[in-house]
Amino acid sequence: MRIYVTGTGVISSIGENVEETLLALRSEKTGIKQGEKIHTERFKVGEIRWTNNELIQRFGLTQDASRTALLGMIAAKEAFQGHTLNPEIRTGLISGTSVGGMDISEIAYKDFLPVKPTI
User: Fold this and answer.
1) Which domain holds residue 87?
2) Is the residue at 59 inside a domain?
């Protein structure tokens, strides 16, 4: 069996695509900085600055999902750009994402607590 890598896609705190990310890595650029969002402003984080709605609009996504799923869709869209799927060729996808729906977990956790947090 032969395996071919025909596409890659990335979105992270140092780049919104593969080219930007490689340039940032080669220049040793860090994506860690003071958080800009209300829930991250107290911490140093590697965050993607756009809201979920901004990500959907900016990258032409057609559905809403958890933040992790949106970022995965953006990376997959870049990886598949210029390719057509052939049903005769077995196609696989390797996805390495963040903390898998943590944004939704945090909301559910706050709703679960008997006393609501003030942050």
Assistant:
1) 18-112
2) yes
Write the pLDDT tens digit of every residue in 27-74.
999 999 998 877 788 889 888 889 899 999 999 999 888 888 899 899
The one-letter amino acid code at 118 reads: T
Number of domains comprising the chain: 1
**Distance of alpha carbon 10 from alpha carbon 89, whole angstroms:** 24
Assigned domain for 92 exists: yes
CA angle, residues 71, 11, 57, in degrees to nearest 5: 55
The one-letter amino acid at 1: M
pLDDT exceeds cutoff 70 at 116: no
pTM of the model: 0.73
CA 82 to chain centre: 21
